[in-house]
């Protein structure tokens, strides 16, 4: 029994050391914020959730105060202090909108924590209270690790719309048979006008393929066969 208690105490101390290192991991980030006097696009949600998790685990430890949970109380007390320092630093250097959002989330978090404590005190008895709070602590701890994924939220809509566009393109990229038949009689030709006093000019004109055959070149100008005949008749009518 003595060796078992010693092993549990050893792993408890190692767990606390690693937990402190995890709490101190954002220090370079907040040192950067302090140097630049700007939050630089960082979000406060992960630190708020970490504070909430530490508070819940601290409450859970006090519910089991007689079961040797001193390491749990120690590490989560340290975590509450560290996360609170992070949040205050963020509030100091964040712009107005981010600061107001942090205030709102912080207030909602504390109201929720207080409601949870009161409801568990009056609605649950001893053993059930410990189990329910323990499961809630596990869920919040999991959300702490998932909170950085909030950056994906703005991209979810774009991904869905892009996927819809790709599907629609795959369905309609070949077009219908009627559209193909309609497009067979259409074409584009370039009308080249030669100006003796300047550079030639090119005018693209959409025409039917049946009319392209009637186009000839007269005096360096592309015209239709009917216009050519009119030009010839006009020359024959010249006065003598």
TrEMBL record:
<keyword id="KW-0472">Membrane</keyword>
<feature type="transmembrane region" description="Helical">
    <location>
        <begin position="45"/>
        <end position="63"/>
    </location>
</feature>
<keyword id="KW-0813">Transport</keyword>
<feature type="transmembrane region" description="Helical">
    <location>
        <begin position="103"/>
        <end position="124"/>
    </location>
</feature>
<dbReference type="InterPro" id="IPR047664">
    <property type="entry name" value="SWEET"/>
</dbReference>
<keyword id="KW-1003">Cell membrane</keyword>
<dbReference type="InterPro" id="IPR004316">
    <property type="entry name" value="SWEET_rpt"/>
</dbReference>
<keyword id="KW-0677">Repeat</keyword>
<keyword id="KW-0812">Transmembrane</keyword>
<feature type="transmembrane region" description="Helical">
    <location>
        <begin position="151"/>
        <end position="172"/>
    </location>
</feature>
<dbReference type="Pfam" id="PF03083">
    <property type="entry name" value="MtN3_slv"/>
</dbReference>
<feature type="transmembrane region" description="Helical">
    <location>
        <begin position="69"/>
        <end position="91"/>
    </location>
</feature>
<keyword id="KW-0762">Sugar transport</keyword>
<comment type="similarity">
    <text>Belongs to the SWEET sugar transporter family.</text>
</comment>
<feature type="transmembrane region" description="Helical">
    <location>
        <begin position="6"/>
        <end position="25"/>
    </location>
</feature>
<protein>
    <recommendedName>
        <fullName>Bidirectional sugar transporter SWEET</fullName>
    </recommendedName>
</protein>
<dbReference type="GO" id="GO:0005886">
    <property type="term" value="C:plasma membrane"/>
</dbReference>
<comment type="function">
    <text>Mediates both low-affinity uptake and efflux of sugar across the membrane.</text>
</comment>
<dbReference type="GO" id="GO:0051119">
    <property type="term" value="F:sugar transmembrane transporter activity"/>
</dbReference>
<keyword id="KW-1133">Transmembrane helix</keyword>
